[in-house]
Design a protein that fits this description.
Layout: H1 10-16, E1 23-27, H2 31-41, E2 45-52, E3 57-63, E4 72-78, E5 91-98, H3 101-110, E6 114-121, E7 129-134, E8 140-145, E9 153-158, H4 163-172, H5 180-194, H6 208-220
Helix pairs in contact: 1-5, 4-5
Amino acid sequence: MAAPNNHEDVLQWVQKDNRRFLRANIRVGDLDRTVKFYTEFFGTKVLSRQDFPDQKYSTAVVAYGPEESHFVLGLTHHHDAAEKLDIGTAFDHFGLATQDVYGTVEKIRAAGGVITREPGPIAEGGRTIFAFVNDPDGYSFELILRPPTPEPLCQICLNVTDVDRSIEFYQKLAIGTDDVYKSGAAVELVNKELGGQTIRPPAVLVDNQDYADFNRKSKDK
C-alpha cells in the first residue's frame, strides 16, 4: 500500500473513506474463564484462539459473526501478569443488545456473577430496560433490551475529560479504513490539533514475533 500524497487533503479523504469500528482488545486474567463467560452468557462465538508460549501470552477473538463483517472483541492473557487487572478509570462499559435482559441477568447471578444494576427502566415510566453486570475481570457490560440485531455488541463507553474535544477527535478519525497510511496521516493531524498519541505508525506486522514485540512494548507503557 502506497504512502499518502502529501498534497492531498487527508482530512477530507477521511470523510469519504469506507470505515467502521473493527475491534477492541482487552487484557484478561484467565482466558478460559473469560471465553466461557462471554460464550455462555453473552452468546458470542470464538473466532480464533492462539497460544504464544515463548512470548508468554495467549489470545482469543470473540464476536457475533465473521471478523470481515462484525465488530470483534480481542482477549489477551499475559502469562506473567498480576492476578488482578487494573482496569483504570478511562474505560466505562460495553453495551450489549439482548431480547431478554431479565433472563440473562438471572443466568449470570445463578453462576455467581456480579450484578451492579438490576434490570429495569432508568426511571419510573421509562421505556428502555437495561441492567449492568461485570465480567470475571471486572469489565462492565450494559445489557439493553432491544429487538434482534446482527450486531449485539453495540456500544463502547469511555470516560473523557472534555466531551466536545473527544467528539471532534472521533469524528475526524478514520477507524477500519481502506488506506492505513492515509488514515495515519489524518490521525497525526488530529493529534496535533486535539491531542492524542499514535502508539504504532502504519506498518506491516511481519510475523508473530513482530506482533509479540509490539504487544510487549505496549504492555510496558
